[in-house]
């Protein structure tokens, strides 16, 4: 691959990054454990704030050669910060395998293992979120989740909630952390400690003050380090750069940024500090082009910055974001596969609060930065709308054509409707952004978190066919909905599938309450909460409902196409065409079609989702509408509704392993469909037909998000005509009211070659689910899943 980057500095930084491997850092774990031992009788939120501040005061400060944006969450680049309050349980079991596991291994030394075993893990035994879950979750929930993986309910107990969009424009940039601290101190003085209702508020505000003091200290420590390095630097150019870095870090993040460079450094300090507080994914940078543009425009207008200098600074930040590393268990690694991807979503485009096009010069520069560095972060997302400039749409298409999986494309009109469903006012809804994979959110105003549990459409069909029996284990895990041979009508069978789905969702709800309560009590987040409007005013942490808007948690439905295709096969083969009976089908599925190839061929040739065929498409819509209504039956701890989502991360692969053969013709253990995408190889009428099927779903009702993957052969987008075809396709996507689409544009030969010679394809990016990852860092099962996706050779 040719050298990338807008300048030689970026080329060097990029190449150095690609030489890093994921490893663990224990400094945060040691600081937190030390503080917790000192503060046994203090309120939990104060203990956590003191641990955060201690880490800011003591962590290793690293400034690498050539950097203009400085700092790392750990002691060096791409280190996963260990947070024992959520990591200790699984880490104690995986300490000897974490460096050699197939997916997302972390380098760890024998000395680090010794420290963990002797100084950290013993203290946290019995004190983690997951242990709370184990002690309180019903046995049926454990069997469905932890023991078999039919549903997943434990991942969020092994990590932080995440899925959070920082209030850069409304909170941090106008105030700086000193301003936030001043607000907290003022609110604290207004509270009467004699009122018992103020006790928790007082402790929360004290915790916010401690966190603000901590991160201000962190900035000054980087200034001291830069100044020390400048004094020893022989190169006058680098000495000047270090002196400027020192000046910037003396000012931010304590104070409001005055320049574009200061604003970018503030963003990065905040991003890395969120990983100090709790090991979690999906700390979103919000509407980056809107928040940062005023600083860029003023600096350029006043002659203090050129566009070229600004582009280089942007790309320096992109590289820092790629260095951010998230620590997760072996089980979670298969659900979030991708080189410890930290899911830092960055949104550009869209409309203003008045509904006008919001595209600006920085929008184009963000796309260019992603084209130049071609790294896994940030997760660039664009909001497209029907009035977006043709030039901007073409730039988006140019990035898609590169084949990195960026950007994720979102329909602005549908995203706004999703925010309106959450109760957000229209002028605020127009300011929506992305978090996590594809989830619509609102920077600094809304608290929601996803992935509290993954349920399984494929298992729902299996349980309906086998009266609740799980074929892989022989255990009765589903409901007893009856012998299918007694179902006289297709509606009876479909009703059984719906009951099995409802059963799975119910267990996720039960688990959700335990996890949500445990995080509130064991892992409050005063630093994160300080970055959201109304938390300081309300004197409440995010997990206690302090934000202006509170939604969720949310679930993930896995394998919609598997459910719809299987329902269609049963309807056609048993009821409509009467070609086979339930007894024949059950025998074929029980044997994984071994000896029943004729029946399998009949199953494979039934209508499939993704071909604009109402026979099956209407069933997919029914399934989606059903889970929306089922979610509306439940309330969370704060009285909000449970949020439905249909995106997979990469859990369609591990959850497929626990599902037996299905009436769709899918064999046991094969991956399920990802998101609302068709099953691999079944979308035979081209990507436009896929769009027509996707458009039938009521996307705005599934306000946790829907995700759809498409894979195009590179030849489809060749030349100017290829870009025009893609732009027309995206216009159709907008007209059809679909929420999201993303693309892999890479040939089969390239992927096969990367499997055979991974060292030659170290920087090959592919789209996995709601994120891009390095292909060679994915386990073979995920690699094979990407290779198996339908390759469309035309629109």
What does this molecule look like?
The structure is a single chain. With 795 residues, the protein is an alpha/beta fold. The chain has a domain at 8-125. Helices cover 50% and strands 8% of the residues. The chain contains 31 helices and 20 strands. Strands 5-6-7-17-16-20 form a six-stranded mixed sheet. Helix 19 (457-465) packs parallel to helix 23 (560-576). The longest helix has 34 residues, at 199-232. It is globular. The protein starts with 7 loop residues before the first helix and ends with a strand. The model has no long low-confidence stretch (mean pLDDT 94).
Average per-residue pLDDT, rounded, comes to 94
Please count the beta strands (DSSP E, at least 2 residues each).
Answer: 20
Radius of gyration: 26 Å
* N→C terminal distance: 28 Å
In quaternary terms, these chains amount to: single chain
Which band does the percent of strand residues land in? 5-15%
Low-confidence stretches: none
| Tally of alpha and pi helices | 31
| Major beta-sheet overview | 6 strands, mixed
